[in-house]
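Worked example 3 (structure in, sequence out).
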């Protein structure tokens, strides 16, 4: 890493701030035009807009861009103009308030892996397990939803506060989703794992809302099965017969250790790895090998990384990390949701139609 001095850091910080202003300026212009506040008359270049609104949004972009530059390391921009990094800063500027909130809620450890592990707070998951309906159902308590907020009255452009396109779109697709928690967490993860386009974001949300429920409250795999038929449907090949399988009803720890033993990098049934590395997060990472790969990427002990996936930040990061490292993003670019679902869920492609419906709804909301 090059040594940073005040003489090199200040221009780099200003460069990042300006890039962030570009991103926020794009969002402001697009947002105003969609809302009807930026009007361009036919045959005329006359434009009707609020300078005060534009100044506020550009300042937000400058702050978000500066924070993004600090996150990636100012040495990245000292005396040079890396196109890929600057585009990431522009995207952070476009995210604006979401990125700023996410930055203050995140622990930044490294410029190489800018979104690293959490603070030692693991109080977001847990709860009493219920009856399992699918293999990826959960025992986590639902995230409480805030009371609905009234939409601002469209009196004039100057009265419209800076909006979060991501938060608004999420609320349209899932009205009960707590966007105060999830919009910042997702915006930060999207920025760091290159989910910059509407298609990539929409395809990701479509997968997340099936894997973790439409309110993202199912962040931990529920292995407490109460009916023999459902247990045999999902895990029947792990038992000699129905009589043996019946012994695993309402026994989530015992069941996980049986069905995930000696595969996915786990040890034998007695090791406890099956339950220790059960599915967690918005994509439900499963198995010691997958958690180990993720833990090494974010520079965290594997068991701590597994627990972190039950928190909103960890769930968002692990989900986006999976989509990026499993080459799902090009599939999103091509809008090949069938192949993308197979890459996430396997050949069974459980709830494929629901995944496609959520993705299409999110794309429409973002547009």
């Amino acid at each position: 890493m090059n040594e940073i001095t005040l003489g090199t850091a200040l221009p780099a910080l200003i460069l990042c701030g300006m890039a962030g202003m570009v991103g926020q300026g794009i969002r402001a212009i697009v947002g105003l035009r969609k809302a009807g506040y930026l009007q361009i008359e036919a045959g005329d270049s006359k434009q009707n807009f609020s300078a005060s609104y534009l100044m506020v949004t550009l300042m937000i972009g400058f702050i978000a861009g500066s924070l993004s530059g600090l996150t990636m390391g100012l040495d990245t921009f000292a005396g040079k103009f890396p196109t890929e990094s600057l585009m990431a800063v522009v995207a952070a500027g476009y995210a604006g308030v979401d990125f700023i909130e996410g930055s203050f809620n995140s622990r930044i450890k490294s410029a190489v892996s800018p979104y690293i592990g959490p603070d030692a707070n693991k109080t977001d998951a847990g709860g009493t397990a219920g009856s399992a309906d699918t293999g990826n159902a959960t025992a986590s308590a639902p995230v409480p939803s805030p009371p609905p907020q009234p939409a601002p009255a469209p009196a004039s452009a100057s009265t419209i506060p800076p909006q979060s396109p991501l938060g608004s779109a999420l609320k349209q697709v899932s009205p009960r989703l707590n966007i105060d928690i999830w919009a910042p967490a997702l915006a930060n993860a999207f920025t760091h794992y290159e989910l910059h386009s509407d298609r990539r974001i929409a395809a990701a949300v479509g997968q997340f809302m099936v894997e973790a429920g439409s309110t993202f409250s199912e962040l931990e795999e529920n292995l407490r099965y109460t009916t023999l038929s459902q247990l045999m449907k999902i895990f029947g090949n792990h038992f000699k017969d129905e009589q043996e399988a019946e012994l695993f009803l309402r026994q989530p720890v015992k069941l996980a250790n049986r069905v995930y033993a000696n595969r996915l990098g786990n040890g034998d049934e007695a090791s406890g790895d099956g339950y220790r590395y059960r599915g967690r997060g918005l994509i439900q990472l499963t198995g010691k090998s997958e958690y180990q790969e993720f833990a090494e990427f974010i520079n965290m002990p594997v068991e701590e990384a597994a627990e972190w996936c039950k928190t909103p930040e960890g769930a968002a990061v692990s989900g986006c990390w999976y989509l990026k490292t499993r080459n799902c993003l090009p599939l999103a670019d091509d809008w090949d949701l069938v192949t993308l679902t197979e890459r996430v869920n396997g050949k069974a492609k459980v709830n494929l139609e629901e995944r496609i419906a959520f993705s299409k709804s999110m794309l429409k909301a973002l547009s």
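Notes: Confidence is low (pLDDT under 50) at residues 33-49, 104-116, 119-162. The longest strand covers residues 39-40.
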